[in-house]
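Let us work through a complete example step by step.
Step 1: write down the sequence.
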Amino acid sequence: MRLKAYLLTLVRTRLVSRFLRKIILMENQILPLPKLYSSKHWHVFVHPQPAYAFHLLLVPRSAYASITDMETLAGEVMADLLLGVEHLVNQHQLEKQGYRLITNGGVYQEVKMPPFHLVSGGEKTQPIPGE
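Step 2: predict the structure and record it as tokens.
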């Protein structure tokens, strides 16, 4: 248990967060996450530890520590995010069963970068509504 707490503390540091971010963004060369979509500002991966039946991770390509750091490009970055979400919702036919776009901040943000989560269905142990 102490090791897990130490690792979470380590991951929350700026240096380690930047390192992890670089690993995620290195076009799958180090961490083999299936990339489903890329745009000017975002990469989209299948979440490596999904909490939902359908769980995608939307990671910004630029270095931001939190969603509040995105204000300089907020309009362009967020418009690009929403276009990507629209594409993914249509591609995976999520409209009928429902979906959520989630982000974490403050004490709920485990890593110093603001990923968004596109999720559908209940928690992984629950069936997707409508199936």
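Step 3: interpret the result. The longest strand covers residues 52-60.
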